[in-house]
Task: structure prediction
Amino acid sequence: MPTSLVPPLIVSFSAKDSSMKSQTTRRQFLQTSTAAGAAFWVGNSFAESETTSPNEKLNIAVVGTQGRASGNIGQINKQNIVAFADVDSVSLGKRLKEFPSANRYKDFRKMFEKEDKNIDAVLVSSPDHIHAPATAMAIRMGKHAYCEKPLTHTIFEARTLAQLAKKHNAVTQMGTQIHAGNNYRRVVELIRSGAIGKVTEAYAWVGKGWADGRFKFGKPAPSRLDWDLWLGPTQKRPYTEGVHPASWRKFWDYGSGTLGDMGCHYIDLIFWALKLKHPTHAWAEGPSVHPVGAPRWCSTHWAFPARGEMPPMTVHWSDGGKRPDILATLKHKNGKPIKWGDGQLFVGHKGMILSSYSNHLLLPEDKFEGFEPPKQTIPNSIGHHNEWIQACKTGGKTTCNFEYSGALSETVLLGTVAFRVGKKIAWDAKNMKATNCPEANDLVHKEYRKGWSL
Result:
């Protein structure tokens, strides 16, 4: 990465002053009308569900119509979906049958420009390499933004989006939907209460694996797909089979393997509970690195400094069927091995917490018999997407805003960098620079293809 690419990098699309003024007026209207409507705050959570008054609905443009987009669209469909953009005409056509009044576009840039005065917010559910250019353009135009995980394809993009969101006072949310679940909240309360003492090690693992992406040239792109637009800011290549619509995660050019896909979901709980932000070191092990595709499995580690009274700690990640060795030592009080699927393990000096999306277990079990959990201090969520919708209307803040989720994504992506360079990285987070490994800096960001900007 050229040394000149250090935030704040502002390479703006042409967002007109007049559109910003109209957007401010629209924001003020939404906040005023919502405050006068049904929703009001009690104990930091909404006492009633979102209002259905047409005047209080958000006008939303959507980038991407398949994969994770399906779930996201299903959660915002009570709002006004004004337009869709997708490079796949068949997928786009299917979505428009559900929303016949919405406008269609292939290129999100044209959609944003033409729909500027008609939209309040955008939802981005494209492949990872499109996340940053689409979301950055929308925020600069004065729109609120919801973007799928990982927030971006590079560390530099994640930092840039967080800075832009702050500068433009945008309401943002990254798509880590499980963050809204009650179980995560209870685990955070346990850790923060000191139930297992000071935590110095935490593990996260998944059995899933996105691996062995390889370019297969020779066939033309199907007529339904605009391949050049699909490539976006990445290097121009002939159409390759096995990338669209879902397997792009296997390719370094477009995704970040299993760590990029699932790390933000599982490491999220560790980040939240232990108030993590930027690691000082990262290193990884796995199969031989391939220049095109992600590995079948990977074990990744990050060292974090002390945070107030919380001591320095190490976070460990395993995927592709690899599991931390410590799991094999865990037993129930009757001596039987604990069988646990994907999840997290927190190791403190007074005990451990084993957790997953929906369950948690204090260990050793006999020590915590009769244990009274701490008082609930984190309100249950009104819903991950509804948090964002209501915050857009009220000027509030979401739990996975880009300040929080940007740092989480940076950490996950630093893990992929450490694997690809095969060295332990000493990380200067402030300057986004590996101080001991120049080749790692080449992976902190990438050169955008002509015609594309961040």
